[in-house]
Amino acid sequence: MRKTLSLDEALTRIRVAFVPLECVAEGWDHGHRIRLKVFDAAGNARINVDELLRDLFIDASRLELMLGEIAARLKAKGFALDNYPAR
């Protein structure tokens, strides 16, 4: 069964996904889109996603897939992530 997320639930999952890196995420367009940036310890933006559409972020499995793709990009850049350990 498909798990549907609210905007706040999606934002919470996104914000904690890349610990220990900082992730700033915000809803915009009346809650129909999310934008996010992931920063390294020096405050440099390492990932910038301008627009996640509601269809993607309200579906928990689709959101987790997208977060996993971003985590893979960060790991390829040499970052260790608490929620996505090295395999």
Produce a short descriptive summary.
This protein is an alpha+beta fold and 87 residues long.
Describe the structure.
With 87 residues, this protein is α+β, with helices and mostly antiparallel strands. The protein has one domain (7-76). Helices cover 36% and strands 26% of the residues. It is built from three helices and three strands. The termini are far apart.
Tertiary shape: globular
Strand content: 25-35%
Main sheet makeup? 3 strands, antiparallel
Number of DSSP E strands = 3
Radius of gyration using CA atoms only? 13 Å
Order of helices and strands: HEEEHH
Give the helix level as a range of percent.
25-40%
Distance between the termini: 28 Å
Strand arrangement across the biggest beta sheet: 1-2-3
Number of helices: 3
Oligomeric grouping of the chains = single chain
Helix-strand makeup class: alpha+beta
| Low-pLDDT stretches | none
Mean pLDDT: 94
Per-chain topology:
Blueprint: H1 7-16, E1 22-28, E2 33-39, E3 45-53, H2 54-57, H3 60-76
Antiparallel strand pairs: 1-2, 2-3
Characteristics of this structure?
single chain; 87 residues; alpha+beta; three-stranded antiparallel beta sheet; 3 strands
